[in-house]
Write a structure and sequence with these properties.
Layout (H helix, E strand, L loop, with lengths): L1 H20 L11 E6 L21 H18 L3 E6 L9 H8 L2 E2 L10 E2 L7 E2 L2 H9 L4 E5 L15 E4 L5 H14 L13 E4 L8 H9 L4 E5 L6 H7 L2 H21 L24 H4 L12
Parallel strand pairs: 1-2, 1-6, 2-3, 6-9, 7-8
Antiparallel strand pairs: 4-5, 7-9
The structure holds zinc ion.
Length: 305
């Protein structure tokens, strides 16, 4: 009996060994890590469609819980390690619970009440709500991080949207450009109506009181970072497109294609720009602008008074 058990155990070990050796080999010998961050969390769902579209009310949070999986699959099938993060707590209700499990979402358990700001662990003059996701990417020494959002600004209900990718100043432009061109080639005006308009890229690095905080923290550590703001949930054409499952998958996969194209393009900043002096303030340092001078953020390093 014992001998049989040992044989079974041996057989299992051999099978596991064979399984491992058939895993995709990483590019360049080391597994490069891509982080995808679902930008909104339960209790802070972000923008949503004004009403039901195709029977669904889509929010930034619900959309990316469901479709980040398809971005991840594309990135993983190209041989990279891909991690999906969310700054909030894990969902307890369906369908988000199943979507989170399927995408393997890592919950960083930092749901910021009223968009409360706090400093980066690594670069404490960088202050923002949602900093925990940037800190995770820094800790993982990620090759890049893509924050998954939809643009929530108003006034675009019927017309074409100013689709854009926001990125960090020193390391993010090639990533943002590649994502924008890929979305233009595959989705914008190719299924998703956009009035013939393309997708612009915008550097955001000024003032610690804005989303620039997480982009700057990534930049300080040499990590290219981009925020997807290419589709509008309050744009009728975009919302109607994204409410169809096959289209939403196509949109998510297109972002995956953009990431893979970027990773393979050699467009990664070489050498990466890494902040030289943590005590030298810049426009994104805490205290730079009047808005952030007024703030009191415990633990933040105020480099400008
Ligand atoms: Zn958002």
């Amino acid at each position: 009996m014992l001998k049989n058990l040992q044989l079974i155990l041996l057989a299992v070990l051999v099978m596991v060994g064979v399984g491992c050796s058939s895993l995709p080999v990483s590019v360049g010998g080391s597994k490069e890590v891509v982080v995808l961050d679902i930008g909104h969390f339960i209790g802070g769902e972000g923008a949503s469609t004004p009403g039901l579209v195709n029977g669904k009310r889509i929010s930034e949070c619900s959309f990316w819980y469901q479709y980040s999986y398809y971005v991840k699959k594309v990135v993983e099938s190209a041989g990279y390690t891909c991690v999906v993060t969310n700054r909030g707590n894990a969902p307890t209700k369906e369908p988000l619970l199943s979507h989170a499990r399927r995408a393997g979402v890592i919950h960083l358990k930092h749901p910021d009440k009223n968009a409360a700001r706090y400093p980066s662990k690594y670069h404490p003059d960088r202050v923002a709500s949602g900093m925990v996701s940037a800190d995770y990417a820094i800790w993982r020494k990620a090759s890049c991080i893509v924050f998954l959002h939809h643009n929530s600004s108003g006034g675009w209900t019927n017309g074409a949207s100013p689709s854009m990718i926001i990125c960090n100043k020193f390391n993010g432009k090639p990533l943002a450009d590649t994502l924008a061109r890929t979305l233009e080639n595959e989705v914008l005006n190719h299924g998703m109506p956009n009035g013939g308009r393309g997708c612009s890229t915008v550097v955001r690095c000024v003032d610690a009181d804005r989303a620039a905080g997480w982009l700057n923290a990534c930049d300080d550590s040499g990590i290219p970072a981009a925020v997807i703001e290419a589709a509008f949930l309050n744009n009728r054409g975009h919302a109607a497109y994204l409410a169809v499952d096959a289209n939403a998958r196509k949109y998510a996969e297109s972002i995956g294609h953009g990431i893979v194209r970027y990773m393979r393009s050699g467009a990664l900043p070489q050498p990466r720009h890494i902040r030289e002096d943590e005590n030298k303030p810049d426009q994104g340092s805490f205290g730079y602008a009047a808005e952030s001078r007024r703030l009191n953020v415990p633990g933040a390093k105020r480099l400008v008074h």
